[in-house]
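chain below, 450 aa
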Amino acid sequence: MTRATPGAVLLLAMVVVPTGWSQQRVWSPRQVSAAAPARGFAASAFDTARNTLVVFGGTSTVQPFTLTADTFEWDGLRWTQRSPANSPPARVYHALSYDERRQEVILFGGQGSSGPLGDTWVWDGNDWTQRFPSVSPAARAYHAMAYDRQRQRTVLFSGSNLSWPWYQDTWEWDGANWTRVAPPTQPMPRVLHSMAYFPPRGVVVMYGGQDSSRLFVDETWEWDGAAWTRPTPPAAPSPRVGASLAYHGDKSVIVLFGGMFSAAFADTWEWDGVQWTFASPSPVPPGRYGAVAGYDPIRRAVVLHGGAQNRPAGLLGDTWEYSLDPMVSAVRPLRIGATHTLTLASAADANRPFVLGTSLGTGPIPIGTRRLHLSADALLQVSAGGVLPTVFAGYGGVLDPFGAGAASITIPRIAALVGVALHTAFITLDSAAPLGIRSVSNTFSVVIAP
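prediction:
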Protein backbone atom coordinates (compact mmCIF):
# COMPACT_ATOMS: atom_id res chain seq x y z
CA MET A 1 0.00 0.00 0.00
CA THR A 2 1.13 3.50 -0.78
CA ARG A 3 -0.20 6.17 1.55
CA ALA A 4 0.51 9.85 1.47
CA THR A 5 -0.48 12.90 3.40
CA PRO A 6 -2.15 15.55 1.19
CA GLY A 7 -0.80 19.03 0.73
CA ALA A 8 -3.99 20.45 -0.21
CA VAL A 9 -18.23 18.36 -29.15
CA LEU A 10 -17.92 14.87 -28.95
CA LEU A 11 -15.50 14.91 -31.82
CA LEU A 12 -15.32 11.96 -34.17
CA ALA A 13 -11.81 10.62 -34.73
CA MET A 14 -10.90 9.11 -38.07
CA VAL A 15 -7.82 7.01 -38.73
CA VAL A 16 -6.44 4.73 -41.38
CA VAL A 17 -6.44 1.25 -39.85
CA PRO A 18 -3.23 -0.64 -40.66
CA THR A 19 -2.82 -4.38 -40.18
CA GLY A 20 -2.50 -5.27 -36.50
CA TRP A 21 -3.63 -1.85 -35.33
CA SER A 22 -5.32 -1.96 -31.91
CA GLN A 23 -8.28 0.34 -31.44
CA GLN A 24 -7.79 2.78 -28.57
CA ARG A 25 -10.19 4.68 -26.35
CA VAL A 26 -10.25 8.46 -26.42
CA TRP A 27 -11.76 11.33 -24.45
CA SER A 28 -14.00 13.56 -26.57
CA PRO A 29 -15.56 16.84 -25.39
CA ARG A 30 -19.28 17.17 -26.07
CA GLN A 31 -20.53 20.48 -27.42
CA VAL A 32 -24.17 20.69 -26.40
CA SER A 33 -26.71 23.44 -26.97
CA ALA A 34 -28.26 22.98 -23.50
CA ALA A 35 -25.65 22.08 -20.91
CA ALA A 36 -25.94 21.23 -17.25
CA PRO A 37 -24.58 23.96 -14.98
CA ALA A 38 -21.17 23.82 -13.35
CA ARG A 39 -21.48 21.41 -10.49
CA GLY A 40 -19.26 19.62 -8.00
CA PHE A 41 -19.67 16.77 -5.51
CA ALA A 42 -22.99 15.66 -6.98
CA ALA A 43 -23.83 11.97 -7.51
CA SER A 44 -24.89 10.04 -10.59
CA ALA A 45 -26.09 6.67 -11.86
CA PHE A 46 -26.83 5.48 -15.38
CA ASP A 47 -30.43 4.34 -15.89
CA THR A 48 -30.11 1.52 -18.46
CA ALA A 49 -33.90 1.17 -18.86
CA ARG A 50 -34.25 4.77 -20.01
CA ASN A 51 -30.71 5.26 -21.38
CA THR A 52 -30.00 8.37 -19.31
CA LEU A 53 -27.32 9.44 -16.86
CA VAL A 54 -29.19 10.71 -13.78
CA VAL A 55 -27.42 13.42 -11.71
CA PHE A 56 -28.71 14.78 -8.43
CA GLY A 57 -27.59 17.57 -6.10
CA GLY A 58 -24.07 18.83 -5.50
CA THR A 59 -22.84 22.36 -5.09
CA SER A 60 -23.02 25.19 -7.61
CA THR A 61 -20.39 27.32 -5.88
CA VAL A 62 -17.29 26.83 -3.76
CA GLN A 63 -16.08 28.67 -0.67
CA PRO A 64 -18.78 28.46 0.61
CA PHE A 65 -20.89 25.65 -0.88
CA THR A 66 -24.32 26.38 -2.33
CA LEU A 67 -26.18 23.08 -1.98
CA THR A 68 -28.59 22.11 -4.76
CA ALA A 69 -31.54 19.74 -5.02
CA ASP A 70 -31.99 19.56 -8.78
CA THR A 71 -32.22 16.50 -11.00
CA PHE A 72 -30.55 16.50 -14.40
CA GLU A 73 -30.47 13.81 -17.08
CA TRP A 74 -28.07 13.27 -20.00
CA ASP A 75 -29.50 11.32 -22.93
CA GLY A 76 -26.35 11.29 -25.05
CA LEU A 77 -27.24 14.48 -26.90
CA ARG A 78 -28.42 17.03 -24.36
CA TRP A 79 -28.87 17.78 -20.66
CA THR A 80 -32.43 18.14 -19.38
CA GLN A 81 -33.41 19.47 -15.98
CA ARG A 82 -36.33 17.50 -14.58
CA SER A 83 -39.08 18.99 -12.41
CA PRO A 84 -40.42 16.16 -10.26
CA ALA A 85 -43.27 16.70 -7.82
CA ASN A 86 -41.08 15.42 -4.99
CA SER A 87 -37.37 15.72 -4.43
CA PRO A 88 -34.77 14.91 -1.77
CA PRO A 89 -33.41 17.88 0.18
CA ALA A 90 -30.31 19.63 -1.17
CA ARG A 91 -27.00 17.90 -0.41
CA VAL A 92 -23.41 17.13 -1.38
CA TYR A 93 -21.16 14.09 -0.87
CA HIS A 94 -24.06 11.65 -1.25
CA ALA A 95 -24.15 8.50 -3.40
CA LEU A 96 -26.38 7.09 -6.16
CA SER A 97 -26.59 3.69 -7.82
CA TYR A 98 -28.95 2.15 -10.37
CA ASP A 99 -30.91 -0.97 -9.41
CA GLU A 100 -31.24 -2.81 -12.73
CA ARG A 101 -33.73 -5.39 -11.46
CA ARG A 102 -36.14 -2.82 -10.07
CA GLN A 103 -35.29 -0.15 -12.66
CA GLU A 104 -34.84 2.67 -10.18
CA VAL A 105 -32.03 4.92 -9.00
CA ILE A 106 -31.14 4.65 -5.30
CA LEU A 107 -29.93 7.67 -3.29
CA PHE A 108 -28.55 7.52 0.22
CA GLY A 109 -27.20 10.10 2.64
CA GLY A 110 -24.93 13.04 2.06
CA GLN A 111 -24.19 16.34 3.75
CA GLY A 112 -27.23 18.60 3.99
CA SER A 113 -27.61 22.14 5.24
CA SER A 114 -27.93 20.92 8.85
CA GLY A 115 -25.41 18.09 8.83
CA PRO A 116 -25.19 14.45 7.70
CA LEU A 117 -28.27 12.78 6.21
CA GLY A 118 -29.45 9.18 6.55
CA ASP A 119 -32.42 9.11 4.18
CA THR A 120 -33.10 6.69 1.31
CA TRP A 121 -34.80 7.81 -1.90
CA VAL A 122 -35.61 6.17 -5.25
CA TRP A 123 -36.04 7.78 -8.69
CA ASP A 124 -38.28 5.98 -11.20
CA GLY A 125 -37.68 8.34 -14.10
CA ASN A 126 -40.59 10.61 -13.19
CA ASP A 127 -40.50 11.30 -9.48
CA TRP A 128 -38.47 10.82 -6.30
CA THR A 129 -40.01 8.71 -3.51
CA GLN A 130 -38.59 8.48 0.00
CA ARG A 131 -38.34 5.01 1.48
CA PHE A 132 -38.52 4.30 5.21
CA PRO A 133 -36.77 0.97 5.86
CA SER A 134 -36.90 -0.43 9.40
CA VAL A 135 -33.10 -0.69 9.48
CA SER A 136 -30.78 1.80 7.82
CA PRO A 137 -27.14 2.88 7.81
CA ALA A 138 -26.34 5.76 10.14
CA ALA A 139 -26.46 9.24 8.66
CA ARG A 140 -23.27 9.93 6.72
CA ALA A 141 -21.50 11.62 3.84
CA TYR A 142 -18.38 10.86 1.78
CA HIS A 143 -19.45 7.21 1.32
CA ALA A 144 -19.61 5.23 -1.94
CA MET A 145 -22.16 2.86 -3.50
CA ALA A 146 -22.30 0.45 -6.45
CA TYR A 147 -24.91 -2.02 -7.71
CA ASP A 148 -23.95 -5.70 -7.65
CA ARG A 149 -25.70 -6.93 -10.79
CA GLN A 150 -25.14 -10.61 -10.07
CA ARG A 151 -26.56 -10.48 -6.54
CA GLN A 152 -29.03 -7.68 -7.29
CA ARG A 153 -27.95 -5.59 -4.32
CA THR A 154 -26.71 -2.04 -3.90
CA VAL A 155 -23.50 -2.09 -1.86
CA LEU A 156 -22.51 0.80 0.45
CA PHE A 157 -19.20 1.12 2.25
CA SER A 158 -17.89 3.46 4.97
CA GLY A 159 -18.21 7.25 5.06
CA SER A 160 -18.35 9.77 7.87
CA ASN A 161 -20.93 11.54 10.03
CA LEU A 162 -18.66 14.61 9.79
CA SER A 163 -17.03 13.76 13.11
CA TRP A 164 -14.68 11.09 14.42
CA PRO A 165 -14.53 8.09 14.16
CA TRP A 166 -15.40 7.23 10.57
CA TYR A 167 -17.62 4.25 9.80
CA GLN A 168 -16.15 0.85 8.99
CA ASP A 169 -19.27 -0.91 7.79
CA THR A 170 -20.69 -2.62 4.70
CA TRP A 171 -24.40 -2.40 3.87
CA GLU A 172 -26.61 -3.81 1.12
CA TRP A 173 -29.96 -2.56 -0.20
CA ASP A 174 -32.32 -5.19 -1.69
CA GLY A 175 -34.97 -2.80 -2.96
CA ALA A 176 -36.90 -2.71 0.32
CA ASN A 177 -34.47 -2.89 3.23
CA TRP A 178 -30.88 -2.19 4.23
CA THR A 179 -28.90 -5.06 5.75
CA ARG A 180 -25.56 -4.70 7.47
CA VAL A 181 -23.24 -7.54 6.51
CA ALA A 182 -20.37 -8.78 8.64
CA PRO A 183 -17.48 -9.95 6.47
CA PRO A 184 -14.45 -11.51 8.22
CA THR A 185 -12.22 -8.59 7.22
CA GLN A 186 -12.96 -5.10 5.97
CA PRO A 187 -10.92 -2.23 4.56
CA MET A 188 -9.99 0.54 6.94
CA PRO A 189 -12.65 3.24 7.31
CA ARG A 190 -12.38 5.84 4.59
CA VAL A 191 -14.02 8.80 2.90
CA LEU A 192 -14.14 10.10 -0.67
CA HIS A 193 -13.35 6.67 -2.11
CA SER A 194 -14.82 5.42 -5.40
CA MET A 195 -16.69 2.21 -6.28
CA ALA A 196 -17.92 0.50 -9.46
CA TYR A 197 -19.20 -2.97 -10.35
CA PHE A 198 -16.96 -5.23 -12.47
CA PRO A 199 -19.23 -7.73 -14.31
CA PRO A 200 -16.54 -10.11 -15.67
CA ARG A 201 -15.72 -11.23 -12.12
CA GLY A 202 -18.97 -10.35 -10.39
CA VAL A 203 -17.33 -8.05 -7.82
CA VAL A 204 -17.63 -4.46 -6.65
CA VAL A 205 -14.29 -2.67 -7.01
CA MET A 206 -13.27 0.11 -4.62
CA TYR A 207 -10.33 2.45 -5.06
CA GLY A 208 -8.54 5.14 -3.08
CA GLY A 209 -9.94 7.56 -0.55
CA GLN A 210 -8.65 8.97 2.72
CA ASP A 211 -8.40 6.39 5.48
CA SER A 212 -8.94 6.67 9.22
CA SER A 213 -5.28 7.66 9.66
CA ARG A 214 -6.16 10.69 7.53
CA LEU A 215 -3.81 9.49 4.80
CA PHE A 216 -4.65 9.27 1.10
CA VAL A 217 -4.38 5.68 -0.17
CA ASP A 218 -3.91 3.84 -3.45
CA GLU A 219 -5.56 0.60 -2.33
CA THR A 220 -7.74 -1.54 -4.60
CA TRP A 221 -10.39 -3.70 -2.88
CA GLU A 222 -13.03 -6.12 -4.20
CA TRP A 223 -16.34 -7.19 -2.62
CA ASP A 224 -17.87 -10.49 -3.80
CA GLY A 225 -20.88 -10.51 -1.50
CA ALA A 226 -19.15 -12.49 1.23
CA ALA A 227 -15.72 -10.97 1.77
CA TRP A 228 -13.54 -7.98 1.01
CA THR A 229 -10.21 -8.93 -0.60
CA ARG A 230 -7.34 -6.70 -1.61
CA PRO A 231 -5.54 -7.38 -4.91
CA THR A 232 -1.94 -6.21 -5.08
CA PRO A 233 -1.32 -5.14 -8.67
CA PRO A 234 2.24 -4.15 -9.64
CA ALA A 235 1.15 -0.59 -10.49
CA ALA A 236 -1.76 1.62 -9.49
CA PRO A 237 -2.94 5.21 -9.71
CA SER A 238 -1.31 7.40 -7.09
CA PRO A 239 -3.11 8.03 -3.77
CA ARG A 240 -6.15 10.29 -4.23
CA VAL A 241 -9.67 11.16 -3.20
CA GLY A 242 -12.72 12.03 -5.30
CA ALA A 243 -11.77 10.06 -8.42
CA SER A 244 -14.45 9.15 -10.99
CA LEU A 245 -14.93 5.41 -11.53
CA ALA A 246 -17.12 3.63 -14.10
CA TYR A 247 -17.15 0.26 -15.86
CA HIS A 248 -16.59 0.48 -19.63
CA GLY A 249 -18.32 -2.42 -21.35
CA ASP A 250 -16.53 -2.24 -24.70
CA LYS A 251 -13.31 -3.76 -23.41
CA SER A 252 -14.40 -4.94 -19.98
CA VAL A 253 -12.38 -2.49 -17.91
CA ILE A 254 -13.12 -0.09 -15.09
CA VAL A 255 -12.10 3.45 -16.04
CA LEU A 256 -10.69 5.80 -13.40
CA PHE A 257 -10.27 9.49 -14.13
CA GLY A 258 -8.89 12.30 -12.02
CA GLY A 259 -9.22 12.76 -8.30
CA MET A 260 -7.21 14.98 -6.01
CA PHE A 261 -4.08 14.86 -3.86
CA SER A 262 -2.43 18.24 -3.45
CA ALA A 263 -3.93 19.23 -6.81
CA ALA A 264 -6.51 17.82 -9.20
CA PHE A 265 -5.36 14.95 -11.43
CA ALA A 266 -6.08 14.64 -15.16
CA ASP A 267 -4.96 11.04 -15.67
CA THR A 268 -6.85 8.01 -16.97
CA TRP A 269 -6.38 4.44 -15.70
CA GLU A 270 -8.03 1.12 -16.60
CA TRP A 271 -8.57 -1.88 -14.30
CA ASP A 272 -8.97 -5.25 -16.07
CA GLY A 273 -9.51 -7.32 -12.95
CA VAL A 274 -5.80 -8.09 -12.53
CA GLN A 275 -3.86 -4.89 -13.02
CA TRP A 276 -4.14 -1.13 -13.47
CA THR A 277 -2.90 0.24 -16.80
CA PHE A 278 -2.15 3.89 -17.37
CA ALA A 279 -3.90 5.14 -20.50
CA SER A 280 -2.63 8.11 -22.45
CA PRO A 281 -5.49 9.37 -24.62
CA SER A 282 -5.29 12.78 -26.26
CA PRO A 283 -6.89 15.16 -25.59
CA VAL A 284 -7.84 14.70 -21.94
CA PRO A 285 -10.39 16.54 -19.81
CA PRO A 286 -9.01 19.20 -17.46
CA GLY A 287 -8.00 17.83 -14.07
CA ARG A 288 -10.84 17.51 -11.58
CA TYR A 289 -12.21 15.70 -8.55
CA GLY A 290 -15.76 15.20 -7.34
CA ALA A 291 -17.08 14.78 -10.91
CA VAL A 292 -19.97 12.51 -11.87
CA ALA A 293 -19.52 9.59 -14.26
CA GLY A 294 -21.42 6.62 -15.68
CA TYR A 295 -21.29 4.17 -18.57
CA ASP A 296 -23.73 4.55 -21.48
CA PRO A 297 -24.09 1.06 -23.03
CA ILE A 298 -25.98 2.34 -26.07
CA ARG A 299 -23.36 4.88 -27.04
CA ARG A 300 -20.59 2.66 -25.64
CA ALA A 301 -19.00 5.51 -23.74
CA VAL A 302 -18.18 6.56 -20.19
CA VAL A 303 -19.74 9.98 -19.56
CA LEU A 304 -17.90 12.47 -17.33
CA HIS A 305 -19.37 15.78 -16.17
CA GLY A 306 -18.41 18.65 -13.92
CA GLY A 307 -16.32 18.43 -10.79
CA ALA A 308 -13.99 20.79 -8.98
CA GLN A 309 -10.64 22.02 -10.23
CA ASN A 310 -7.86 23.13 -7.95
CA ARG A 311 -9.60 25.18 -5.32
CA PRO A 312 -8.91 28.67 -6.75
CA ALA A 313 -10.28 27.61 -10.15
CA GLY A 314 -13.79 26.68 -8.99
CA LEU A 315 -16.23 24.28 -10.63
CA LEU A 316 -16.52 22.81 -14.12
CA GLY A 317 -19.63 22.39 -16.27
CA ASP A 318 -18.20 20.47 -19.23
CA THR A 319 -19.25 17.04 -20.51
CA TRP A 320 -16.83 14.45 -21.93
CA GLU A 321 -17.12 10.91 -23.26
CA TYR A 322 -14.53 8.13 -23.13
CA SER A 323 -15.16 5.71 -25.97
CA LEU A 324 -13.43 3.58 -28.53
CA ASP A 325 -11.57 5.72 -31.04
CA PRO A 326 -13.98 6.01 -33.99
CA MET A 327 -12.43 4.52 -37.08
CA VAL A 328 -12.81 5.10 -40.78
CA SER A 329 -11.72 2.33 -43.05
CA ALA A 330 -11.63 2.08 -46.82
CA VAL A 331 -10.39 -0.54 -49.24
CA ARG A 332 -7.08 0.73 -50.56
CA PRO A 333 -5.79 1.92 -52.90
CA LEU A 334 -8.17 4.69 -53.91
CA ARG A 335 -7.99 4.98 -57.69
CA ILE A 336 -9.14 7.54 -60.24
CA GLY A 337 -12.35 6.69 -62.03
CA ALA A 338 -13.53 4.43 -59.19
CA THR A 339 -16.13 4.66 -56.44
CA HIS A 340 -14.93 4.03 -52.90
CA THR A 341 -16.87 3.55 -49.67
CA LEU A 342 -15.64 5.11 -46.45
CA THR A 343 -17.02 3.53 -43.27
CA LEU A 344 -17.14 5.37 -39.94
CA ALA A 345 -17.44 3.08 -36.91
CA SER A 346 -17.73 3.64 -33.14
CA ALA A 347 -18.90 7.22 -33.37
CA ALA A 348 -21.31 8.49 -30.77
CA ASP A 349 -23.60 10.94 -32.58
CA ALA A 350 -26.30 8.37 -33.28
CA ASN A 351 -29.02 9.09 -35.86
CA ARG A 352 -27.43 12.37 -36.91
CA PRO A 353 -27.09 13.55 -40.51
CA PHE A 354 -23.55 13.96 -41.79
CA VAL A 355 -21.72 15.16 -44.86
CA LEU A 356 -18.26 14.31 -46.09
CA GLY A 357 -15.81 17.15 -46.26
CA THR A 358 -13.05 16.50 -48.80
CA SER A 359 -10.13 18.42 -50.17
CA LEU A 360 -7.02 17.86 -52.26
CA GLY A 361 -3.37 18.62 -51.64
CA THR A 362 -2.77 20.60 -48.48
CA GLY A 363 -6.44 21.62 -48.55
CA PRO A 364 -8.47 23.40 -45.87
CA ILE A 365 -8.82 20.28 -43.68
CA PRO A 366 -5.76 20.17 -41.40
CA ILE A 367 -3.64 17.11 -42.11
CA GLY A 368 -2.66 14.72 -39.37
CA THR A 369 -4.87 16.25 -36.71
CA ARG A 370 -6.86 13.95 -34.45
CA ARG A 371 -10.01 14.63 -32.42
CA LEU A 372 -9.98 18.17 -33.68
CA HIS A 373 -11.93 20.61 -31.53
CA LEU A 374 -14.24 22.63 -33.75
CA SER A 375 -13.30 25.97 -32.22
CA ALA A 376 -9.67 25.32 -33.18
CA ASP A 377 -10.58 24.30 -36.74
CA ALA A 378 -10.02 27.73 -38.20
CA LEU A 379 -9.07 26.36 -41.63
CA LEU A 380 -12.29 24.43 -42.18
CA GLN A 381 -14.58 26.16 -44.67
CA VAL A 382 -18.17 24.95 -44.90
CA SER A 383 -20.88 25.64 -47.43
CA ALA A 384 -24.07 23.95 -48.56
CA GLY A 385 -21.96 21.96 -50.99
CA GLY A 386 -19.63 20.63 -48.31
CA VAL A 387 -16.08 21.62 -47.55
CA LEU A 388 -14.40 23.95 -50.04
CA PRO A 389 -12.40 23.74 -52.18
CA THR A 390 -13.54 20.28 -53.18
CA VAL A 391 -14.25 18.09 -56.15
CA PHE A 392 -16.36 15.70 -54.04
CA ALA A 393 -19.22 17.85 -52.74
CA GLY A 394 -22.58 16.62 -51.61
CA TYR A 395 -21.74 13.19 -50.18
CA GLY A 396 -23.34 12.28 -46.88
CA GLY A 397 -26.03 10.33 -45.08
CA VAL A 398 -27.33 9.56 -41.60
CA LEU A 399 -25.48 7.78 -38.81
CA ASP A 400 -27.19 4.65 -37.51
CA PRO A 401 -28.37 4.14 -33.87
CA PHE A 402 -24.87 3.00 -32.94
CA GLY A 403 -23.17 6.05 -34.44
CA ALA A 404 -21.81 4.24 -37.49
CA GLY A 405 -22.04 5.57 -41.02
CA ALA A 406 -20.90 4.92 -44.56
CA ALA A 407 -20.61 7.09 -47.63
CA SER A 408 -19.21 6.58 -51.11
CA ILE A 409 -17.09 8.97 -53.12
CA THR A 410 -16.31 8.74 -56.81
CA ILE A 411 -12.89 9.99 -57.82
CA PRO A 412 -13.02 11.56 -61.30
CA ARG A 413 -10.91 10.01 -64.01
CA ILE A 414 -8.49 12.91 -64.12
CA ALA A 415 -4.85 11.94 -64.65
CA ALA A 416 -3.64 14.97 -62.75
CA LEU A 417 -5.21 13.55 -59.56
CA VAL A 418 -2.75 10.63 -59.45
CA GLY A 419 -0.28 11.15 -56.61
CA VAL A 420 -2.37 13.90 -55.03
CA ALA A 421 -3.32 13.54 -51.36
CA LEU A 422 -7.06 13.24 -50.69
CA HIS A 423 -8.27 14.39 -47.26
CA THR A 424 -11.74 13.43 -46.07
CA ALA A 425 -13.56 14.25 -42.82
CA PHE A 426 -17.00 13.35 -41.47
CA ILE A 427 -19.00 16.42 -40.44
CA THR A 428 -22.01 15.71 -38.21
CA LEU A 429 -24.79 18.26 -38.55
CA ASP A 430 -27.04 19.84 -35.93
CA SER A 431 -29.19 22.89 -36.70
CA ALA A 432 -29.04 23.96 -33.04
CA ALA A 433 -25.25 23.89 -32.86
CA PRO A 434 -22.90 26.76 -33.79
CA LEU A 435 -22.62 27.01 -37.60
CA GLY A 436 -24.96 24.03 -37.80
CA ILE A 437 -22.06 21.66 -37.08
CA ARG A 438 -22.21 19.27 -34.15
CA SER A 439 -18.81 17.61 -34.58
CA VAL A 440 -15.94 17.22 -37.00
CA SER A 441 -13.73 14.18 -37.27
CA ASN A 442 -10.02 14.23 -37.76
CA THR A 443 -8.81 13.68 -41.30
CA PHE A 444 -8.53 10.45 -43.26
CA SER A 445 -5.74 11.03 -45.77
CA VAL A 446 -4.60 8.87 -48.66
CA VAL A 447 -2.67 9.38 -51.88
CA ILE A 448 -4.79 8.76 -54.99
CA ALA A 449 -3.53 5.90 -57.17
CA PRO A 450 -3.78 5.50 -60.96
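The chain has two domains: 25-323, 327-447. Residues 25-323 form a domain with the Neuraminidase fold (CATH 2.120.10.80).
thats it, cya
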